[in-house]
Amino acid sequence: MAESITLEVTRYQHDVDDEPWTQEYDIPLRENWVVLDGLNHIKDRLDGTLSYRWSCRMGICGSCGMMVNGEPQLTCAAFLFDYAPGPIRVEPLANFPVVRDLIVDIGDFMEKLPRVSPWIVREEEQPTSEGEYLQTPAELDEYKQYSMCINCMLCYSACPVYGIDPDFVGPAAIALAQRYNLDSRDEGAAERLETLIHPDGLWACTYVGECTTACPKDVDPAGAIQRYKLSAAIETAKSYLLPGRES
C-alpha cells in the first residue's frame, strides 16, 4: 500500500478567482486518518490559506460536510483508506453558494429552518408544580429517529429538488417538523401544516430518496416526508368532509 494519497481540493476566493479551481496535495495515507485529518494536515503543514469548517471531529456537530468524490459526506467519518489509492476529490457541498474554498453559505437553510417551528409548541404550559411532561417508551419511539438530525445539510446537497428549486423548504426542515408533530408533548402540528402545505413545502418532494441515502444519522428524511404527506392528506380531507371541526 502506498504511503501517501492525493487530495484534489477545490479552491475559490470570490474577490480573486473568476471560478473555482483545483489544487492537489499529497498527504500521508494512515489507517486511522479521515479526510478531515488530511485537510488539517494540509492546513497545518502545507498550506495555511486553505479554508473549511469543522468542530467536533466526532460526527455530532455536522459542520464538516463536504463533497467527497462527488458524494456528500461528513469528512470526519470518511476514511482515507476507503478511497485508496486515490486521488480523493474534495469539494464544497453542492447546491449552496461558495464563500471560500470548501466553505458554503448556509444562510438559506438557517432562514428556512425556523419556518417549521422545530421546537415544542404548546398553547398553555402546565404548572411547574406538576413536574415533567411524562412520555411512555412507545411515545418516545414515535419521534426518536427523526430527532437525531444534526443539521449537517448533507440531505440538501443530495436533494435534486432543492438543486433545481431553491425555494423548496428542504428535507431536514420537513423531517424536523414531523419529529415535533409526532411528539406527544407538542400542539403545533396545525401551525406547521399551514406552513408546509404550500407548493414549496412537503408536496415539492418527489421521493427520490437521496436525502435518506446521504444522512449520516439514519434519520430517513424521505420516509418522514412521505409519512407527513399522508397525515397532511388526511387532515385536508377531514377539513372538507367535516368543516368547522377543531384539530
Automatic annotation (TrEMBL):
Instruction: List the Pfam families hit by this protein, alphabetically.
Output: Fer2_3, Fer4_8
- Which biological process annotations from GO are given for this protein? respiratory electron transport chain; tricarboxylic acid cycle
Q: What is the cofactor note?
A: Binds 1 [4Fe-4S] cluster. Binds 1 [2Fe-2S] cluster.
SUPFAM superfamilies, from UniProt?
Answer: 2Fe-2S ferredoxin-like (SSF54292), alpha-helical ferredoxin (SSF46548)
Whether Iron-sulfur counts among this entry's keywords is yes
Q: Which pathway is it part of?
A: Carbohydrate metabolism; tricarboxylic acid cycle
GO MF term list = 2 iron, 2 sulfur cluster binding; 3 iron, 4 sulfur cluster binding; 4 iron, 4 sulfur cluster binding; electron transfer activity; metal ion binding; succinate dehydrogenase (quinone) activity
Q: Give the protein's cofactors.
A: [4Fe-4S] cluster; [2Fe-2S] cluster; [3Fe-4S] cluster
Source organism superkingdom: Bacteria
Keywords, ordered alphabetically: 2Fe-2S, 3Fe-4S, 4Fe-4S, Iron, Iron-sulfur, Metal-binding, Oxidoreductase, Tricarboxylic acid cycle
Q: What is this protein called?
A: Fumarate reductase iron-sulfur subunit
